[in-house]
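Hi team, as promised in this morning's meeting, here are the two structures we talked about. I've kept the exact order from the run log so nobody has to guess. The first one is mostly here for context; it's the second one we should focus on when we meet again. Sequence first, then the predicted structure tokens.
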Amino acid sequence: MISFTVRMKFRSEDRERVADLLTTLARESRQEPGCVSYNPHIVDGEADTVVIYEQYKDQKAVEAHRASAHFKDHVVGGLYQMMLERQVENLASIA
């Protein structure tokens, strides 16, 4: 299992567009065969910061996600164009 978080910061004026993109992206990503979990969140007290918790069954599933049309459209062509900062944290399960 591969798990990680992606933390991104956006401008306040992009908040509605970011939420729309993430809603669509989550719905489409959750339907990928190798996606176990795809959960975007707004950080409490930081309305312009998003954290996405993602889990995939293996590296092949991660690569399929990143190669998908919805990733290219909503992430590369959308979120990446608006984000101010991005940080990825790879997670290792302990239980």
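And here is the second protein, the one for discussion:
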Amino acid sequence: MKGLDTNVLVRYLTQDDREQARKVDRLVETIVAKGERAYVNVIVLAELTWVLRSAYGFGKEALVRVLERMLATPRLVLEGRDEVREALDEYRGGEGDFSDYLIGARNLRAGCSGTATFDRHLKGSALFTIL
């Protein structure tokens, strides 16, 4: 199994650098051909959504589609898949960033009763307590 960094996923999704995109496409083809899987950790997912939003102008709907496709891709092993799914569900209906909801979901799974925050965008989420 090969771990994927944020910049690799960005190149694959945006195809904005022809040379790097070709390398990533070949890597994906090799993984599929060999029946292997690729690993994406939660830090990469948080970075990915931030980069796609801030540097590439992806809106919320586009980010939701990207995350849904990643969850549905059998060749991708997502760290904390259940937490990612829960964070995505919260993100769809909330005003916070995906990474915020990912933090809340991971904290809940770690045994926390919730996550304290000053971020008013997270009001209404059962994952957070607004201070």
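Starting points for discussion:
The chain has a mean pLDDT of 96.
Strands lie at 2-3, 38-40, 76-78, 115-117, 128-130.
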